[in-house]
Amino acid sequence: MIQIRWQLGRYIRHGWRWFILIQLICLLSVLFAGSLALSERLDDRVEEVVAATDNYLNRGIDSLTTLGQELTPGVCDATTEFRLTEAAIHSDVFDHFAYLSDRGGYCRSATNPLYPVQVGQLISTHPGPLWLSFDDSTLTPYQLFVLEQTPGHYLIGMAKSAHLLERLISPRDREFIRQIQIQVDQRLFYARDSLTQVPWLSLQTNLSQGKVNAQMMALLLSGDHWRRWLTYSLPLSLTLGLILPVLMIRRRSHQGVLLDDLTTALRRGEIAPVFQPIVHGGNGRVKGFEMMARWTHPTLGKITPDTFIPMMERHGLLDNLLTSLADQARGKLPSTTYLSINLSGEQLTQGLRDPLSFLLELCHKLEIPANRLMVEITERHALDYDCPQLQETLALLRHAGFKLAFDDFGTGHNGIACLRTFSPDVIKIDKSYVHTVSGDAIQKPVLDAIIQLARKMEVEVIAEGVETDAQRRFLLERGVTSMQGYLFGRPAHWHDSCPLPQPATA
Ligand code: C2E
Ligand code: CA
Ligand code: CA
Fold it and tell me: I want to staple 217 with a disulfide (CB 3.0 to 4.6 A). Which of 60, 179, 399, 400 is the partner?
């Protein structure tokens, strides 16, 4: 239950940024993909509109030409008007017809609202033999075709713009293509809502009846286009928004611990120092204490250093950890003991700050001189002891009075090879070798060899992980007096009310 609550809390604390970011990315991708699809769709539509216009023009002219052949030139009588009315009823292009002749006058189909003066104006302002126009002077806008049948005789066809719209744009597209304007030979031929803005799409094509220019404006945020896009993308982005943060958090976490958790823990002082005595195995005198970190998480409880130290090392937080531990340990150390701290190899070599001044600052915080601080160099990654810069750093530290120890000697990278170019003050024999005393006959000689090697090099030895009296006696027999392990004391918090074993008087 606690675990679930913690994971949920972690999701809310760390995941919301990812959630918002993913939603934004999804929204932008949807807008982008939607605009691409829309512009492709509009491109197709403009082409269709131009083709439909061409078709419409040809059919209009054919229809006028055929009707013209049935009429007697220059005659405008009742028969003519009847013929025009009849043709208007049957025509699938025009709603009205009219005939204008300089000899016979003007006649028109029934209900035709066109006056001859409008035709006259059209003819006078543009060269023939075909005049096309858009007439929106009445409530119902019209397309006007004027065809000069023979010189001085004009046949006129009128079509309601609404009919043209039906031919040009399908009912589905009509809602989203808001403005459209078609020009033929630079004369306005059709307009649905006059084009007030720069058109979204425009196409100019030479067609059989002249140069047709079609321009369109589509409404971006309306229509089922976007509705369709959002129907698919919204559930997808919500799902991604929920799943991806979980994956991100998992990727960034190490055994369930997040970097952010670590920095918060440091800030809140959840990581506290514990101290384990390093004693004289013969008389039990406490010579020093090793300071180690303990993290008590508010909901998860105790988290072991093996979990969080490698992660802190990766993120360069070990300096902050030591500083925080030193702050908490200030003034607690008995004056006759030294303090041993763990310093990873990378803390010595990362070069972000000067190791000497960092350690001096730690001593200042701890209120102890440099010669009471032992630095255990732990190596998770191999250190290049041949490197002159590292040698110089180690020499400087030793010159300042710090005691230098190789931690976990004999394991990982802390092996005999390290002694080739640098001789520490102390080597700490790893507990795995000490534990061989009680059984492992093959490994026991290795422990012997390490002890002899250290003696030859005149390096002090501390045996770690001493748990039994047999181990203590074995070590004493071989001259190893400094020991650390559960036999003498476990790592413990330094409570004023419950002090650790105080150094025995010699
Ligand atoms: P280490 O430096 O070798 O620390 C000794 C580890 O052995 C500690 O484990 C300690 O609790 C454990 N130990 C001590 N006596 C005995 C014993 O008699 N028997 C057994 N079985 N174990 C014993 P811990 O505290 O879990 O620390 C593990 C490692 O985490 C440490 O190994 C050290 O490398 C690292 N570490 C702990 N605290 C710090 C820190 O403050 N800074 C850095 N850089 N590393 C730390
Ligand atoms: Ca250590
Ligand atoms: Ca160790």
Answer: 179
